[in-house]
Specification:
homodimer; mainly alpha; Arc Repressor Mutant, subunit A; Four Helix Bundle (Hemerythrin (Met), subunit A); two-stranded antiparallel sheet; 2 strands; DNA-binding
DNA sequence: CCCTTCCAGTGGTATGACCACTTTCAACCA
DNA sequence: TGGTTGAAAGTGGTCATACCACTGGAAGGG
């Protein structure tokens, strides 16, 4: 009979996916394990080899399999680089999602900084500190400055020592890195921006060192809010200038 | 000659991917556009249909294509829902990460509840409220109670109206749903738990209605912390009882 | 005019064959 | 005896062809 051939009444591709989900959750497949050959797997799952290959390819694209020609397919720890590819594509399609991704960034950082206040060690402090120094040295260079700003925030998230938060942060980081630089280019000419940047970041840093979660989160939120404010001001300035000097 | 057949000297699958990357970034393929049929595409790209299908499947899994049986493949705006698949597989690989995922949950909810205070409308209020009522009705049933607890928190996140946060929450929620029920089963017998659950959730709800972000986040964090506390107590109780009454 | 039926086009699956790469090991030569 | 070589087996990579299942519209009948 055509139905209930193996165990699932699922058809085709979905059968393969559910098989892997089960195997992984049950622990039958561990990291580094080698899968059966495509021919054996297709036979045992009751699907054709092309169908099986479509599923394996998809899993490989998500980063869960490492398929090597002539050797076989191996279970791999999913790596985040897929997600950065994904976000890059999606940004090309709808640039307006960046604002919303910012909400995710704020969420992650605010929780991570609380954890950092509890968990960070001296090595974390010195790492964050060095990025802060770097940030102060590059105030006049939008590109290097944006990069330093970005790595400063990354080091805070890392100091939280939560794999889940770090993973999520990395997933959106490719977008954030670019936006850091763009923002710097926008706001570099706003009066008082240099002093503000130094003070804001230093206060955030000091709150972590003081191991005061409430203060740290509060400072960080203020930092984000004021950053928004500066960006609005720079837009206003740009448009005002455009009105009096229509061409560049 | 075998090489330089079309334009790229790439072979097979990679040729298909690079083709789509170019088409998408160049704007030749817009949202909602219908792709050529698999047979035509395969012919025009100089690859076989199975190979083309592997690539299309992978793109569909990443959310960039919507393939419909009998109709064709359409270019789709990739939403962030791929993250759900990603995290499902991801955590299947390392089940011990579940405690850490809780940090992600806290991060998302605390930011979402702040947004909810600004953005939520009457419909959101009534939805959250109804889930709160449901929660109060199911205090004695660990399963239904855990489910109600879960949906209450979901409705808060939805009220924040941030697609990125909602998606991330969905991604980790499949794990959390199970843990909600398990926790209820653990803590259902702890003295005072019923009153606490009602009060804590009601206060969180009222803070949202009052549109007070700081209070709402504070209550929510307390809720999480006290939940931890209750769980610890129940463990202590269970082990103490086990010492005096070794069986069951 | 509406409903039914059929058909062409599409994705979904299956089969079998062949190619390219990797590893192994046995045969061969020094 | 020891080292080198190359043949064979097993793997993923690709291809061609055929057929099935679903969709939608056109042609036919009521």
């Amino acid at each position: 009979m055509a139905l209930a051939e193996n165990a699932d009444d699922l058809q085709g591709t979905e059968k393969v996916f559910s098989f892997f989900r089960e195997q992984l959750l049950a622990g039958a497949l561990k990291l580094g394990d080698r899968l059966l050959s495509e021919r054996e797997l297709a036979l045992s799952l009751g699907v054709s080899r092309p169908v099986l290959r479509e599923a394996l390819r998809s899993l490989a694209m998500l980063g869960f399999l490492d398929i090597r020609h002539g050797k076989g397919a191996y279970v791999r720890a999913a790596d985040i680089s897929v997600l950065t590819d994904f976000f890059t594509f999606s940004l090309a399609q709808q640039p307006d999602i960046l604002d919303d991704v910012m909400q995710a960034r704020i969420a992650i950082e605010c929780q991570a900084i609380r954890l950092a206040c509890e968990r960070a060690g001296d090595s974390d402090f010195s790492r964050i500190g060095s990025h802060l120094s770097r940030l102060m040295e590059t105030l006049d260079d939008p590109e290097a400055g944006g990069e330093a700003d970005f790595t400063f925030h990354v080091s805070i998230v890392e100091a939280g020592r939560s794999p889940a938060l770090i993973t999520l942060y990395q997933a959106v980081s490719e977008l954030l890195r670019r936006s850091h630089v763009e923002r710097r280019q926008l706001t570099v000419k706003v009066p008082g921006i240099r002093d503000y940047l130094v003070d804001a970041h230093r206060e955030v840093f000091l709150s972590i060192v003081a191991r005061d979660p409430d203060a740290a989160e509060k400072r960080l939120r203020e930092h984000f809010a004021i950053g928004d404010e500066f960006r609005r001001k720079s837009f206003i300035a740009a448009y005002s200038k455009a009105a009096s000097q229509p061409k560049d």
